[in-house]
Amino acid sequence: MQLEVPGFGCLDLEHLVLDFNGTIARDGILLSNMDRTLKELAAQYTIHVVTADTGGTVTEALAELPCRLQIIREGDEAEQKDAYIRTLGPERVVCLGNGANDRLMLKTAALGIAVLEGEGTAVSALQHADIVARSVYDAMGLLMVPRRIVATLRS
């Protein structure tokens, strides 16, 4: 997706990087209709899910979906997620997250969107995001209708 945002800059996004628990899943279970939403977004983005998978459910939850799964080790998750963003080329990445361990990737990515879901959202994630969305579905709606991003970020 290419998008010119007055006062923010030009976005040329190729990769969508998602946190798992708290963002697209709750308690290790994919949110309702998330499979359909991910399939729709896969037409525009290469989708990546980065998680420590503490619940051990992510492989099964994403088995049929067009996602590249990156399971990171427990401990220093924020740094590992940030490093993953950097391997993709942060200027081509939009990421969604809610936790303190998502804060660095939200800051590093060309576009970071903090989401408010049932698990809650860390203040540090909010502070490092470019946009805050009241749900993951609202955040994904921004990506499906990019003029909403322009309306939010233009200065």
Present the secondary structure layout.
Elements: E1 2-5, E2 9-12, E3 15-19, E4 25-26, E5 29-30, H1 34-41, E6 46-51, H2 58-61, E7 67-71, H3 77-88, E8 93-97, H4 103-108, E9 111-115, H5 123-128, E10 131-133, H6 136-144, H7 147-153
Parallel strand pairs: 3-6, 3-8, 6-7, 8-9, 9-10
Antiparallel strand pairs: 1-2, 4-5
Note down, in words, how this protein is organized.
This protein has a six-stranded parallel beta sheet, with helices on both faces. It has a two-stranded antiparallel ribbon with strand order 1-2. By secondary structure, the chain is α/β, with parallel strands linked by helices. It has seven helices and ten strands. The longest helix has 12 residues, at 77-88.
Q: What is the rounded distance between the termini?
A: 20 Å
Strand content: 25-35%
Assembly classification: single chain
Q: Give the H and E element order.
A: EEEEEHEHEHEHEHEHH
Radius of gyration: 14 Å
Number of helices: 7
Largest sheet: 6 strands, parallel
Helical amount among residues, as a percent range?
A: 25-40%
Topology, number of strands: 10
Q: Which structural class matches the secondary elements?
A: alpha/beta
Briefly say what this structure is:
The chain has helices spanning 34-41, 58-61, 77-88, 103-108, 123-128, 136-144, 147-153, and strands spanning 2-5, 9-12, 15-19, 25-26, 29-30, 46-51, 67-71, 93-97, 111-115, 131-133.
